[in-house]
């Protein structure tokens, strides 16, 4: 549903106060939608800023359902940004990884369930078109009905059902059954212990046969610019730079619904490490070295630590 803003009416202070209240109330849900579609906290924030501006300018008296209006606007804007982001990422140097987000305060990040939030799954979602991604996210993470999704995407209900079905099939072909939270943390701790001590044999025992290591540094010196495949190669990569693990402070963080690792050097965050694991062991190692993405994670931590906060300018 789209409502054009009324150019003749100027909102009163109470009207704007109510607009802010409604926006803030739904902000986590809107961020959760945009983030899952984009894989970028910074881009999701930009989308929400634009959503707020449109909500502020809209004749809200004509809006039957504010949450429907806000969700629809967020989804469409996120799809537009995702289409242009795909072109920009073609020039990215080395593997591109999603920006991690802190989920210590909200493990599902505003959704009905934590679906499509883990970093490894966000990577798979990148292989879908932005519209397919949005349809899947709205259905599986936020439990929107097919008619609601059809209205948001300006598609027929039949088409939406087909899109969601194709997306499910594509993801089921590539995703694996994840281990539970306890086992995931155990594997992460075991990986860190073995990597810090240079225990290659123990590392190989932790890995699935087809393990892959992805390093997001966007051209940073020392960051692997291609995926590293296989137990032996990934184990060697994880231990080949002893200085990487020397004189650092390690801390566990809640990111994207899973326990991950933040590495500090000289008091500053320098690397973020996440794993994806199944019953076969760790099958994906994800290293985020890009300072902007680490900063985005820290920003999301402060933003959601005490609940919902309004977008800039609200």
What would your notes on this structure say?
The protein has a domain at 181-298: Roll (Nuclear Transport Factor 2, Chain: A). It has a six-stranded mixed β-sheet with strand order 2-1-6-5-4-3. It is built from twelve helices and six strands. The longest helix has 26 residues, at 13-38. Strand 5 and strand 6 form a beta hairpin. The chain has helices spanning 13-38, 41-57, 66-89, 119-125, 130-140, 146-153, 157-174, 181-197, 200-206, 231-239, 242-245, 291-304, and strands at 207-216, 228-229, 248-255, 258-265, 268-278, 281-288. Helix 1 (13-38) crosses helix 3 and helix 1 crosses helix 5 (130-140).
CATH architecture of the domain at 181-298: Roll
CATH topology of the domain at 181-298: Nuclear Transport Factor 2, Chain: A
Q: Give helix % range.
A: 40-55%
Mean pLDDT: 89
Strand order of the largest sheet: 2-1-6-5-4-3
User: So what's the CATH class of the domain at 181-298?
Assistant: Alpha Beta
Secondary structure category: alpha+beta
Q: Strand tally, please?
A: 6
Q: Uncertain segments of ≥5 residues (pLDDT<50)?
A: 1-9, 305-314
Order of helices and strands: HHHHHHHHHEEHHEEEEH
**Contiguous helical run count:** 12
Largest sheet: 6 strands, mixed
**What is the percentage of strand-forming residues?**
5-15%
Indicate the radius of gyration in whole angstroms.
Answer: 21 Å
What is the oligomeric state here?
A: single chain
């Amino acid at each position: 549903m789209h409502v054009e803003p009324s150019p003749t009416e100027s909102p009163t202070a109470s009207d704007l106060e109510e607009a802010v209240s409604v926006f803030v109330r739904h902000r986590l849900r809107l961020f959760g939608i945009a983030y899952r579609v984009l894989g970028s906290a910074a881009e999701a924030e930009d989308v929400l800023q634009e959503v707020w501006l449109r909500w502020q300018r809209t004749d809200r008296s004509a809006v039957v359902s504010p949450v429907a209006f806000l969700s629809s606007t967020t989804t469409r804007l996120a799809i537009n940004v995702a289409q242009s982001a795909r072109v920009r990422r073609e020039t990215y140097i080395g593997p591109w990884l999603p920006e991690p987000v802190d989920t210590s305060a909200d493990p599902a990040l505003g959704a009905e369930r934590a679906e499509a939030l883990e970093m490894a799954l966000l990577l798979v979602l990148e292989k879908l078109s932005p519209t397919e991604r949005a349809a899947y996210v709205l259905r599986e993470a936020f439990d929107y009905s097919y008619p609601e999704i059809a209205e948001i995407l300006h598609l027929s209900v039949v088409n939406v059902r087909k899109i969601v079905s194709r997306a499910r099939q594509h993801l089921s072909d590539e995703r694996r059954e994840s281990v539970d939270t306890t086992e995931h943390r155990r594997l992460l701790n075991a990986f860190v212990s073995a990597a810090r001590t240079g225990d290659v044999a123990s590392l190989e025992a932790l890995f699935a046969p087809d393990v892959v290591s992805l390093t997001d540094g966007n051209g940073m010196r020392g960051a692997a610019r291609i995926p590293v495949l296989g137990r032996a190669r990934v184990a060697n990569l994880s231990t080949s730079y002893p200085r990487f693990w020397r004189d650092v402070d390690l801390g566990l963080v809640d990111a994207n619904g899973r326990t991950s690792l933040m590495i500090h050097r000289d008091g500053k965050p320098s690397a973020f490490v996440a794993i994806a694991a199944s019953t076969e062991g760790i099958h994906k190692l994800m290293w985020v070295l890009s300072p902007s993405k680490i900063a985005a994670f820290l920003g999301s931590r402060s933003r959601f630590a005490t609940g919902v906060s309004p977008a800039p300018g609200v």
